[in-house]
Amino acid sequence: MGRFLILIFLTGQLVAALLFANEQLEPMLVSALRLETETKNLPARVQLIDQADIEESGAAGLVELLRRKANLQIRSTSGNHSRSVVSMGGFGDNAGQRTLVLVDGHRLNAFDLSHINWHSIPLAMVESIEVIRGAHSGTYGNHAVGGVIKINTRLPQEGQTALFEVSGGSYDSMNTRGVYSQGVNGIGLTAFGEHDQSNGYRDNGDYQTHAGGVRVDWGYKADLKAYLFSNFSETEFGLPGDLNASTLSRNRKFSNNPSDRGTERSSIWRSGISLQLNDAWILEGRIGFDERRVNANMPSQGGYVATNDYDTLTFSPTLQLNSGDVNFLVGFDYFNGGVDRDGVYNNNDLNSSNDIDASAAHDREAIAHFSSLRYSISESWDGIGNLRFQKNKSSLLISGTRLNQIKDIDWAGGVGLIRKFGSTNRLYSSLRRFFRYPSTDELVAYEPPHYLPANHVNLVPEEGYELEVGLDWSWEKFCLDTRVFQQWMEHEIITNGSSNFNLDDTERVGLDFSLTWNINEMISSGLMYAYVRSKISEGIYKNSKVPLVSESMSRLFIEIRPYDSLLVHFGGAYVGESFEGNDLYNSGSKLPDYWIYDLRMNYEYSEHATFFGGVENLFDQDFISTAYQSSFGNRTAYYPGEGRRVTVGLRYSF
Fold first, then answer.
1. Which residues contact 52 (CB under 8 A, 6 or more apart)?
2. Each residue of 449-488: b (16+ CB within 10 Å) or e?
3. Beta-bridge partner residues of 238
4. Is residue 52 predicted with pLDDT exceeding 50?
5. SS3 of 14, please?
6. CA dist list (Å): 363 to 2, 351, 396
7. Which residue has the higher pLDDT, 605 or 31?
8. CATH number at residue 158
9. Helix (H, G, I), strand (E, B) or coil at 11
């Protein structure tokens, strides 16, 4: 019944908007922090990766693009970018729970510990990406602790446009993608599709993804605009598992788990409508419905076999005032998600009487009220503030046992001040309060090899404060974007390998910046750098550094355009050392630091055709992507990073 009502709602929006559409197409947009104002009026460091950046990068997927263009820390257990974890703000284990990912304003993060399937987001459909650093729970709620990755899908233009791209390379990788867009009489249609496959760097590290969808935009200049978006994806992947030190030194491509496999299917429906009430007031509503099925078959984990069915409903109505020096927003966010897990540990035994039940059914409902206000104090000064109150309710059923319902109420918000110097330069400061709720897998988890449920329902939400000061400045041929920040957190949720628990207090101090230098018309260069010191400041682990956090990360690059049609890019990325996962006492060895280099070229053969190619990890550097100390035996589980990868391709557009 619920799905039927959602379908009626979405169809109703489409019919209503089509009845009123005319020749002016103005697609419905989402601003970086939800207020309808320019980024320079927001007290945060917002990095834009636009369509030109995406095409010139030659990246095969979003994770590769974010590592190159935003200098973000990436960790993977598969030896490739599938099912990677993207970390922002100095977080280690489960960093993905503290980096919010949005597509057209709708969240992709699950309420359990399941990874974001980055391959379910075809790069062909991406128009731009905004990387928003810092804690923004006051704007977005749960997960927005280290930063926000806001993905904007392609918007149609009047007339016809299309892009087709094919590439291939190392490990028998092949990627084909395409997008077609047309706008006629105020109606815009965008269709996209992508196929991506690779045998992977490691044994059983292969993956294959099919994804595609459609977006319809309609609107007219006076009053009404809306959109309807749908996306479907199917991914099959191997789970190569970890290696011990001895195996790693002999053959880092080896897999101890050659039969562990997984699949994921997802369907996404999103819709939004915006009504201009008068010259100043806008009423908007967004609704989303996601379905996802994840299958796992893992003989190495006691014969674990499971099917996880997810469904998520979100709804966000807002009322906005945009009147000269004032931007005001008041809104409501509703989230309702559930997962049903049909799973067993069969110990690889055909006798079902020996199976250990691993079934579960978890539900989460969240309701939030929020408001934001920006006021232009003078021509040079802007003030901004936001406030959010949120209620969260989790219902947990595991192995047939219903646990006590968990209810939490929390708040977040922030105040900021911006000093402008001309049209582009500015200095800003911001003080924010944030929170994050425990995921359902953190509250209730299975811990191999015993396969008994570990009950952590006494976990409380993470919460804290963040102070940030930033500067955006351009002069002559240089452009600098930078910020310094300090974050104080209470009750950070962490694992020691056998249980999840709240730490007393943690603290983070950091600096990150991007500096570009346009040397002349032919040559440009740049440096991105991020430093963060993450430490435990109270309790039995006092003064220990948070595991799996690299204190320093940097990226250097130079781009040479000897001809208008040829672009050559050479870059290097440095990842500093960190303590292994679960090493809360900092008593073990560190993951070593490393440099990896890349070389890329783009050649515009004609107005419509471009050849491109590149080499990732140019010198085939051996490095460890992530590692965990085991609580069951004296060993460390290592996950090697990907070796040298060569890619060549052709892009055609009109």
1. none
2. eebebbebeebebbbbebebebbbbeeeeebbbbbebebe
3. 261
4. yes
5. helix
6. 16, 32, 7
7. 605
8. 2.40.170.20
9. helix
CA 508, 510, 515 angle in degrees (round to 5)?
160
The least confident of 244-253, 390-399, 467-476 is: 390-399
- For tokens 């104002």, the residue is 37
Give the model's pLDDT for residue 25: 45
Is there a cis peptide before residue 448, judged by omega within 30 degrees of 0? no
Highest mean pLDDT among 1-15, 69-83, 229-243, 396-410: 229-243
Q: Which amino acid is at 644?
A: R
Between CA 216 and CA 21 the distance in angstroms is 12
Residues 6+ apart with CB under 8 A from 240: 77, 78, 79, 200, 202, 203, 204, 205, 255, 257, 260
**Structure tokens that stand for 484 in this block:** 């310094």
Host H or E run for residue 165: strand 159-169
Cα dihedral sign, 579-546-98-491: positive
Residue 358: partners with Cβ closer than 8 Å, 6 or more residues away = 304, 306, 341, 343, 344, 345, 399, 446, 451
- Whether residue 601 is predicted with pLDDT greater than 70 in this model: the reply is yes
CA–CA separation, 229 vs 289, rounded Å?
11
Whether 54 has a pLDDT exceeding 80, the answer reads yes
- The predicted-structure confidence for 313-335, as pLDDT tens digits, reads as follows 999 999 999 988 999 999 999 99
Bridge partners (DSSP) of residue 587 are: none
Q: For residue range 226-284, what is the model confidence (pLDDT) as tens digits?
A: 999 999 999 999 999 999 999 999 999 999 999 999 999 999 999 999 999 998 999 99
Q: Give the domain range for residue 31.
A: 2-653
The number of angstroms, rounded, from the C-alpha of 343 to the middle of its chain's C-alpha atoms is 28
Indicate the SS3 state at residue 345: strand
Do 117 and 235 meet the contact criterion of CB atoms below 8 Å apart? yes
- How many structural domains is the chain composed of? 1
Residue 400 CA to residue 397 CA, distance in Å, equals: 6
Count Cβ neighbours within 10 Å for each residue of 100-113 and write b for 16 or more, e otherwise: bbbbbbbbbbbbbe
Query: Does residue 30 contact residue 105 with C-beta atoms inside 8 Å?
Result: yes
DSSP strand E in 220-280: where? Answer: 224-238, 261-276
Alpha carbons 194 and 654: distance in angstroms, whole number? 18
Please calculate the CA angle 337-339-345 and round it to the nearest 5 degrees: 165
User: Half-sphere exposure of 511 toward its Cβ, with a 13 Å CA cutoff?
Assistant: 3
- pLDDT tens per residue across span 93-132: 889 999 999 998 889 999 988 888 888 888 888 999 999 9
Helix H or strand E segment including 565? none
Pairing of strands 99-103, 147-153: parallel
Q: Which DSSP category does 282 fall into?
A: E
Q: What pTM, to 2 d.p., does this model score? A: 0.92
Model confidence at 565: pLDDT above 60: yes
